[in-house]
Amino acid sequence: xxTSATTTTPLARQTSIKVLAVIGFVTLIGAGMWLAVYxxxxxxxxxxxxxxxxxxxxxxxxxxxxxxxxxxxxTPMASTTISFDGASSTSLKTLVTHPTTIVPKRIATTAxxxxxxxxxxxxxxxxxxxxxxxxxxxxxxxxxxxxxxxxNSFIASSTVPAGSRPAIRFxxxxxxxxxxxxxxxxxxxxxxxxxxxxxxxxxxxxxxDSIDYTLGFDQANKGANETISITANFDHxxxxxxxxxxxxxxxxxxxxx
Length: 257
Prior knowledge:
Elements: H1 2-50, E1 55-62, E2 68-71, E3 82-83, H2 89-97, E4 105-106, E5 117-120, E6 136-146, E7 154-156, E8 159-160, E9 165-174, E10 185-189, E11 195-198, E12 210-217, E13 223-232, E14 247-254
Parallel strand pairs: 8-14
Antiparallel strand pairs: 1-12, 2-5, 3-4, 6-7, 6-9, 9-12, 10-11, 10-13, 13-14
């Protein structure tokens, strides 16, 4: 009897271990499948909420206006020569006495060619004289929204409709007396996650040069009096004569759904 009990006990234990192992394996597979379904349903929406805002930017470079003088030469009036058929001074007296007996002969002539020429005023041609320092000035031109993802679809408005992308138009100009060299600007925009857009290096501006920008963005905060702020040369890589006019801001109302 003792021998039989000793033999069956290890077999029962092995069977129990196998059963528990199968149950654990099945449970592990089930947990993995549930986790995969949960990730598919919920994780993408979380990622989309924490993604960065998209910025849409367009720009137009404007050089300083050249001072041109338009000169239109006056064309002399065409002259017509009247021949008196070789009449002498004596016959001229007869002409005066009897004017009805003389028929003057007209000779056809061609009018002079009319010209129109533009001359540049002396001293305005060529590059401007450079001295001193450059000076950026930022000006807000309009606020509104983009009708599409293109910066060319800008619509001026103080209120942004629900689902649209807020946008701003602004100009950065060099009103100083020297070349800027490469420079950058930043835009503080009211997105759901605090975001400051920093531009790529911009082209050098000569005195009088300017660039008109249109900047739009998505994932905007909803509410009234949301502030958009633009700052030229925010990293101070360009030495200026005046930094007090580098920034400008505007407020806009962004409607929710």
